[in-house]
Amino acid sequence: MLHRLYSPERWTFNGTDVSALQRQHAGLKRLQQQNYIVQNNSVEFGSNPLSGFRGLVSSSFHVVGAEGFVPSEAAMEQCSSWTSGCMTAEMETVKLKEINLALTPERDNSNKRKAEIAADERCIEKRSKGEVGMEYSEVKAKCSSTEISANTSSKENSKVSEVEKSKYIHVRPPRGQATGSHSLAERARREKINRKMKCLQELVPGCSKVTGKAGMLDEIINYVQCLQRQVEFLSMTLAALNPSQEFNVANFPAKEFPAYITKFPAAAKLPALANRACLPFFPTQPGATNCMPDVALHSPQASIERNSTYSVSTSQQTLNSSGISQLGPLSSWSLDSQGLYDEYNTGFQ
Amino acid sequence: MKNPSSSSVKSRFTRRFLRALIKINRQKPSSSSSREIFLRYRRIRIAADKAMACVIGSRRAWSRAVLRRIKNQKRKRLADSLRRSNGIHGMKKMVAKEEDEISYEQENELRKLVPGVGAMDLCSMLDETAHYVMCLATQVQVMRKIVDFYST
């Protein structure tokens, strides 16, 4: 047992405190996790009281005979043989810990180092496999040269390799790893952008034919500009329409308006027809519109508009059918003021 | 991504916008000059923007930016609108572009177009742009129907 504890120190004690830490770490872990090893070790250790105790426990279920050898803690635990066996194992580990404490002067820093080693292990996982494999084989060769016992050699190997790797990463600048993570992040970002671009491609009409991100972005920019200008233009048109609109809006409450909008073609036919029917009388009927009681407020401005855009009103028949979108704001104004009266008439007749 | 062109957003925008229109129409114009039309246009434009941004709420950057801009615009309204329209027209110059990569000029152009994406990364900006495009399309659709309805 002591020989095994000493053995790692013998071959790795070349000035680095990592070897001492490694030996202690490996020993503690192994002993705490695997009790049966400790029990086997106790047989090898030559401590006859403990081996006799084991024999007693296994043969006669009572632990009476064990009390002579085991201290008082185990005496209190007389419920079963298994728990007492565990207790002996724990005691054994405590002993070994004391030995470790005596042997390692750097034990105070062990916790800190453990954390460092864990961090280094995490870093190492990201590195390329070839280097690690090479390192690992090297460490294996080293371990085989030393006298490590057979049942713990694999565990020792892994521990040693990790320590060696941590040493390795201290020596080498982590250049490759940095670029690796950067390139990974860059790739993820590019994929994200591609997904978003695809999403946008579906939204923007005519964008699916364009290849390349630059062309697509051009299309998107154009489309957004176009939509913003459309909103501008439509609000301008609404502004031009507005003086005549309040009757309509007052007639149609806002809640019912979407219904009107959805069946717009059917709803719009009647006023349009009435509009066209009234059109020939329009230039000769300023008095007729003036005599309407509710439109008195609007009549002066309407007459002004008629004077200013009289030439437009002659071609109103064609414009009326072609729709508002081809008209300037002023012509639509006059058109609408006339259309409003007609609509007003048809609404109340 | 939530679908902003759903019927609920559309109808809510329509309702808000029409309410704003009624409110604007209550104040009767003193004259029919082009100045008056321009003022009216600006108010309608702001009302449309505000209605859309209010419908979307504060969960999107562009709607937040629009609301903030409208709030800040109360004082320097005219100058800002002039500057914005100039900016849009001034951005017409084409950029020399590579085939497959997004150039900085394009990105900046899009940043100027979509409100509230000034300091975003490209991914979030594209997300915002998609949402903004959908909302703008809805807005245009509704406004066109209103105009069509009133113009007949």
Automatic annotation (TrEMBL), chain A:
Gene Ontology CC: one annotated term: nucleus
Record-annotated membrane-spanning stretches: none
Origin superkingdom: Eukaryota
Keywords recorded for this protein, A-Z: DNA-binding, Nucleus, Transcription, Transcription regulation
Localisation per UniProt entry: Nucleus
GO molecular function terms noted in the UniProt entry: DNA binding; DNA-binding transcription factor activity; protein dimerization activity
BHLH domain boundaries: 177-227
Protein name per its UniProtKB record: BHLH domain-containing protein
UniProtKB/TrEMBL annotation, chain B:
Domain IBH1-like N-terminal: 7-73
UniProt feature coiled coil, ranges: none
GO process annotations (BP): regulation of DNA-templated transcription
Top-level lineage group: Eukaryota
Transmembrane segments: none
Keyword annotations of the record: Transcription, Transcription regulation
PANTHER family (alphabetical): TRANSCRIPTION FACTOR IBH1 (PTHR33124:SF40), TRANSCRIPTION FACTOR IBH1-LIKE 1 (PTHR33124)
The protein's name: IBH1-like N-terminal domain-containing protein
Annotated organism of origin: Rubroshorea leprosula
